[in-house]
Amino acid sequence: MELLSTRKKREKEMLKEVKRTSYIRLQLRYKFAHLGEIASFANPKPYVAVWPRLKVNLLYSNLGRFFANIKPITDFFYNAYYVMLWEDLV
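^ thats the sequence. predicted structure below, dont judge the formating
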Protein backbone atom coordinates (compact mmCIF):
# COMPACT_ATOMS: atom_id res chain seq x y z
CA MET A 1 0.00 0.00 0.00
CA GLU A 2 2.84 2.35 0.82
CA LEU A 3 4.50 1.67 -2.53
CA LEU A 4 1.32 2.65 -4.35
CA SER A 5 0.97 5.91 -2.44
CA THR A 6 4.60 6.90 -3.11
CA ARG A 7 4.11 6.14 -6.79
CA LYS A 8 1.03 8.38 -6.89
CA LYS A 9 2.96 11.13 -5.13
CA ARG A 10 5.76 10.88 -7.66
CA GLU A 11 3.29 10.99 -10.54
CA LYS A 12 1.64 14.12 -9.12
CA GLU A 13 5.04 15.78 -8.68
CA MET A 14 5.98 14.91 -12.25
CA LEU A 15 2.72 16.37 -13.57
CA LYS A 16 3.30 19.58 -11.64
CA GLU A 17 6.83 19.81 -13.05
CA VAL A 18 5.58 19.26 -16.61
CA LYS A 19 2.91 21.92 -16.23
CA ARG A 20 5.42 24.38 -14.78
CA THR A 21 8.02 23.85 -17.49
CA SER A 22 5.49 24.03 -20.31
CA TYR A 23 4.23 27.35 -18.96
CA ILE A 24 7.78 28.68 -18.84
CA ARG A 25 8.42 27.53 -22.41
CA LEU A 26 5.26 29.19 -23.68
CA GLN A 27 6.09 32.36 -21.84
CA LEU A 28 9.62 32.45 -23.29
CA ARG A 29 8.39 31.84 -26.83
CA TYR A 30 5.83 34.62 -26.46
CA LYS A 31 8.35 37.13 -25.15
CA PHE A 32 11.03 36.29 -27.69
CA ALA A 33 8.54 36.42 -30.55
CA HIS A 34 7.72 40.01 -29.63
CA LEU A 35 11.40 40.85 -29.24
CA GLY A 36 12.08 39.38 -32.66
CA GLU A 37 9.31 41.42 -34.19
CA ILE A 38 10.70 44.62 -32.68
CA ALA A 39 14.24 43.73 -33.83
CA SER A 40 13.07 43.12 -37.38
CA PHE A 41 11.79 46.69 -37.60
CA ALA A 42 15.06 48.04 -36.19
CA ASN A 43 17.11 46.85 -39.19
CA PRO A 44 14.97 47.16 -42.34
CA LYS A 45 17.91 46.98 -44.79
CA PRO A 46 17.99 43.51 -46.40
CA TYR A 47 21.23 41.57 -46.48
CA VAL A 48 22.63 41.19 -49.98
CA ALA A 49 24.93 38.21 -50.41
CA VAL A 50 27.92 38.66 -52.69
CA TRP A 51 28.40 35.57 -54.81
CA PRO A 52 31.80 34.85 -56.36
CA ARG A 53 32.12 34.62 -60.14
CA LEU A 54 31.36 31.21 -61.59
CA LYS A 55 34.55 29.48 -62.63
CA VAL A 56 33.56 27.15 -65.45
CA ASN A 57 36.96 25.43 -65.63
CA LEU A 58 36.81 24.56 -61.93
CA LEU A 59 33.25 23.29 -62.30
CA TYR A 60 34.24 21.14 -65.28
CA SER A 61 37.25 19.63 -63.49
CA ASN A 62 35.20 18.92 -60.35
CA LEU A 63 32.50 17.19 -62.40
CA GLY A 64 35.17 15.07 -64.09
CA ARG A 65 36.57 14.03 -60.70
CA PHE A 66 33.07 13.30 -59.42
CA PHE A 67 32.22 11.03 -62.36
CA ALA A 68 35.61 9.31 -62.12
CA ASN A 69 35.01 8.59 -58.42
CA ILE A 70 31.42 7.42 -58.84
CA LYS A 71 32.07 5.12 -61.82
CA PRO A 72 33.22 2.09 -59.74
CA ILE A 73 30.12 2.39 -57.57
CA THR A 74 27.76 2.52 -60.53
CA ASP A 75 29.61 -0.37 -62.20
CA PHE A 76 29.17 -2.45 -59.06
CA PHE A 77 25.41 -1.92 -58.95
CA TYR A 78 25.12 -2.42 -62.71
CA ASN A 79 26.87 -5.80 -62.41
CA ALA A 80 24.97 -6.75 -59.26
CA TYR A 81 21.76 -6.29 -61.26
CA TYR A 82 22.75 -9.20 -63.53
CA VAL A 83 23.72 -11.37 -60.56
CA MET A 84 20.36 -10.75 -58.92
CA LEU A 85 18.51 -11.77 -62.10
CA TRP A 86 20.75 -14.83 -62.70
CA GLU A 87 21.37 -13.82 -66.26
CA ASP A 88 24.31 -14.87 -68.40
CA LEU A 89 26.98 -12.18 -68.57
CA VAL A 90 28.18 -13.33 -72.02
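Residues 2-42 form the longest helix (41 residues).
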